[in-house]
Amino acid sequence: MTDDTSAPPAPGEPPSALRSRADFHAALRWSLGHAIASRSRRLTWMDPDFAIWPLGDAALLQDLTTWLKLPQRRLVLIAQRFDAVPRLHPRFVAWRRDWSHAIEAWAPSDGIDVRMPTLAIDDDRLCLQVFDSTHWRGRLSFDEHAVRQWRDEIDALLQRCEAAFPVHHVGL
User: Fold this and answer.
1) In whole angstroms, what is the distance from residue 160 CA to residue 172 CA?
2) Of 7, 28, 40, 129, which is least packed with CB atoms within 10 Å of its CB?
3) Fold of the 21-163 domain
């Protein structure tokens, strides 16, 4: 098994096709570095439950912090459910409290059956997708058409979603 905490590839050297969990994590970190360099305003991350994402990785959280400090940034998280996130990524949950004004979390409304891929897209052309999380097959591409198509699908999905994964739980 490869080390999931290895440094991301240098800017300008995007990872090739994904063949392992470590490849996915490296591609995600690379895409975040690209978002910082290209000053992307919005990132959309989608997954059934974000269990396989390196959300607790300190370097990833530092890069997210750097990106969110830029003006008018928005991270949109979409999942079928977020129940695994507090258990698997407590560092992310604690970090998110400081950035709740810039992070949206959505889940499909009850009764809505949706195909939920593992996907990360930016404003206009970066698309990171895992096609098969069992065998870790996927790709990172710069395809404006694919991003536009995903953005349209996501916009339609968000109309059938409700806010999820609250930062603070209100109790009685």
Assistant:
1) 29
2) 7
3) Endonuclease; Chain A (3.30.870)
